[in-house]
Amino acid sequence: MEIFVSIQLNKRSSLPLYQQLAQQIKNLIFESQLKPDEKLPPIRKLAARLGVNNVTVVNAYRQLEQDGLLYSKVGSGTYVKPYPPSRGANALTVTPPFSGLEYSIPGLNIMDQGQLHIPSGSYNFASAIPTPELFPVADFKQILNEVLDRDGGSAFAYQEGQGYFPLRESLSRYLKDNGIGADESSIQVISGAQQGIDIIAKSLLKPGDFVITENPTYTGAIAAFKSRGARIVPAVLKEDGISIEYLQDVIEKYRPRLMYIIPNFQTPTGICYSEEKKKALLKLCQAYNIIIIEDDSFTDLSYYTQRLPIKIMAGADKVIFIKSFSKILMPGLRLAFLLAPNNVIPGLLKAKHSSDISTPGLIQRAFDLYLRKGLWEKHLEYMKEKYQQRYHVMLEAMTNYLPPEITYSKSGGGLSFWLKLPAGGSSNHFYTRCLEKKVIISPGSLFSASDERDSEYFRLSFAGLYPDEIVKGIQALSEAYEYRQNQLLARNSYSPLL
Amino acid sequence: MEIFVSIQLNKRSSLPLYQQLAQQIKNLIFESQLKPDEKLPPIRKLAARLGVNNVTVVNAYRQLEQDGLLYSKVGSGTYVKPYPPSRGANALTVTPPFSGLEYSIPGLNIMDQGQLHIPSGSYNFASAIPTPELFPVADFKQILNEVLDRDGGSAFAYQEGQGYFPLRESLSRYLKDNGIGADESSIQVISGAQQGIDIIAKSLLKPGDFVITENPTYTGAIAAFKSRGARIVPAVLKEDGISIEYLQDVIEKYRPRLMYIIPNFQTPTGICYSEEKKKALLKLCQAYNIIIIEDDSFTDLSYYTQRLPIKIMAGADKVIFIKSFSKILMPGLRLAFLLAPNNVIPGLLKAKHSSDISTPGLIQRAFDLYLRKGLWEKHLEYMKEKYQQRYHVMLEAMTNYLPPEITYSKSGGGLSFWLKLPAGGSSNHFYTRCLEKKVIISPGSLFSASDERDSEYFRLSFAGLYPDEIVKGIQALSEAYEYRQNQLLARNSYSPLL
Q1: Run of H or E residues at B260
Q2: Residue B461 sits at the chain A interface (C-beta within 8 Å)
Q3: Domain residue ranges of chain A, discontinuous segments joined by +
């Protein structure tokens, strides 16, 4: 009952109370605060708690049943409907189509780049970047012109290697508004998060050093670490973050220098670390003098509970925090920043210099003005709303059309879902099936921190698709799956698996 | 005592042990690991720690005392001398202004960055970038707006990692107009020449590999190579390019993988390679399978004889050609490209991905349109005229005002002159003298490919100064020189040297 305390109903809203209530219960389910098969409060009790008529609760529960989110047992009560569990188990041929750099897909992660073929007119669930009509082009054009009128040629001169000072000022203010104390001298402007990871690797790693990463993870980071001759220790991910027991083991064994993690809406799994897990991690890394790199692209896209970065926590002063604006503003800007302990900054600056000297001045100046005018916050609100809508459409489409043996969980944020084929299924193989239906998925192997060449998992991102495309795409994906199943059955296979 | 752990003495070196030791203590002082007035370890203790005779330490300390870096108190020990060095202690004390990253000078080479102090109102001969009023801001603003109107949000999406295709088309046409056949697939767009060098190092070098560079050279390149764990073989420069005899020797000895050269208006010397030298180089590198990196920033600034890149020659298909537009267009754009053999391109693309994914799309699109409209050629003509004028003003000022013992040669192009103090002179010291007169020079040590900490040479760039400032600056520099000479004469020094 405690979790229902958070429910707020507004009697003056134009939205009927039962719909408000249904929406908020839905959120609790999406955030996994209500677990599968968990019993909901009895109607009278909840109505009394919220100060509404019983019929409001009845209607809310009924709508959620219709939405496939709840079920009721006669004489017992109402329950959260579980996600379809995987059935049976069996093996299938692994067909790894992913080698070489043959193609280039705008918006894919670095290691994805060039590894998937995208026919035109596809439902591209591989791209995690916004559709371009969401970009604030008009605002940005206005800002660029203002900067050019104001600064003239200076906008095109070299900037300070650490970043245009007024921008670092604005970023410092932005961080303070988000609860993170940081002065300008701790901020390094970078040409995108990838460069941040790269210069950290350059300045802090020696060949042979060990780096812990989540597994699966963003493999662009792995590429940067490996390019320094570092060795990767892939850490097992549980549903609330890295397994601490495993971590303790590998730390003892390898004495790693760095740990690279994405604690909120992790790429690709969507996992959010629990507060306990974050604390345990921090403590462990402090004890063993391991620098945590916290990659934060998605915290701003918390659709329900607002997630918070590790960097905000007490004792996180040694954490290097990388913040990218690519996914929410415009990826082609190539602008991000990192916040690092003062003793690390000179090395990072040196590495930045030897990488590209400085980030283009015009872009830094424009983004500074964009922040100062409050346009970033405005745009963030707008994007969050758009993305949240796509998140819901996607969830609904998956609920309606996906075969029950394909499972997934709800992260409540970010731009993707992480799905699982029945045990033994091959997402590489499924990728090929989907391609025939013009659906592009990202097979799990693209995110492997180890040498795994295939996986039961795949990622679907909804950022780059319009709502109607999302629905059609999920339908097509389901057809690809069913078609394969039927083929297998026709061939008299025992296994109903892909 | 702990910081002395880092000291490594090599008994097989041709350099005496006490000199090796002195050099390394000097470095500790320059790096501020030893602070002013800090006490050095007692002679016996340090000798025991390093496993050398006491006399080695005695001699090292004595030499550093003579250099004005240490002082001793009778019965107490030896201490680090604080800056500024007390007058009269020694006439030719080296005052190393080059430690730490304290300052940032727009337009200086990467390794220069932050190493010189520029008071406001100075005559800054250290910066090799144009004064901002020369930037084509109005044209570029117009172009940016056209691109935004034409492409909308696509201008801010990710671009192909290899570069926006139409830009590669334009660059290919530009190259053909300049006599270099190149199709789009051989071109990689980069965020400035520095990034080009960095991704070449990333994709082609392994730790321990040898790279030949000119000495002196652009030390941003050295930083990128060293960051990969490569070892530098500094090649002697004659007035028509690298010494072929020396080259043959070091190639036999080290079997280097790459050679990095700036064959036209070399940084910092302004040297242009003769045609014979270029041919000999190409032949040698072909025979030993060494990839030449040709860095070309200045060929377009040939004021008399039009110089040509090596890449244009027969047999240069294995040369990687880097072309920067920074010095002529606008350095803050961070845009350049490289032309590489087809078998090298995939590796470069991968390195580019792991560095920053792609160069900002808006800038690529704008520069493409700039080329297509013929604005580049128009601007180049304009800049060449402006720079040529400054070149002449500079030459005249030097002829009129410089004391005859400061010598230089005329390169006939580029943006700098390379000057030489009388034999035995210290350009580090002269830097300090000039600073007092608000003249900023680049001492030769900033361009050293070896570990040389001082040099008789210094560079003066005229790109960032207006003609009248050039004249006043050269006058002030001459005063700085004369003043010093008079001081020395007054003290009855034998040496007429700075």
Answers
A1: strand B258-261
A2: no
A3: 2-80, 83-128+374-498, 138-373
B196 inside 8 A of chain A by CB: no
pTM of the model: 0.77
Per-residue pLDDT of chain A (498 residues; tens, 9 = 90+): 777 877 888 887 767 888 888 878 877 776 667 887 889 998 999 998 888 888 889 888 887 887 667 888 878 889 887 643 222 222 222 222 332 222 333 333 333 434 455 667 889 999 888 888 899 999 999 999 999 999 999 899 888 899 999 999 999 999 999 999 999 999 999 999 999 999 999 999 998 999 999 999 999 999 999 999 999 999 999 999 999 999 999 999 999 999 999 999 999 999 999 999 999 999 999 999 999 999 999 999 999 999 999 999 999 999 999 999 888 888 899 999 999 999 999 999 999 999 999 999 999 999 999 999 999 999 999 999 999 999 999 999 999 999 999 999 999 999 999 999 999 999 999 999 999 999 999 999 999 999 888 999 999 999 999 999 999 999 999 999 987 677 766 665 545 444
Per-window interface: A 339-378 vs B, CB < 8 A = 346, 349-351, 353-363
- Report the chain B residue with the minimal C-alpha distance to residue A227: B202
Residue among A101, A161, A192 minimizing CB distance to B356: A192
Q: Which residues from A are below 8 Å from B349, CB to CB?
A: 101, 114
Looking at domain A83-128+374-498, does it have CATH number 3.90.1150.10? yes
CATH number given to B2-80: 1.10.10.10
Q: Which fold has domain B137-373?
A: Aspartate Aminotransferase; domain 2 (3.40.640)
- ipTM comes to 0.75
Contact A227 B349 (CB under 8 A): no
CB contacts, 8 Å: A145 with chain B: 141, 145
In CATH, what class is A138-373? alpha beta
Looking at chain B, which residue has its C-alpha nearest residue A195? Answer: B356
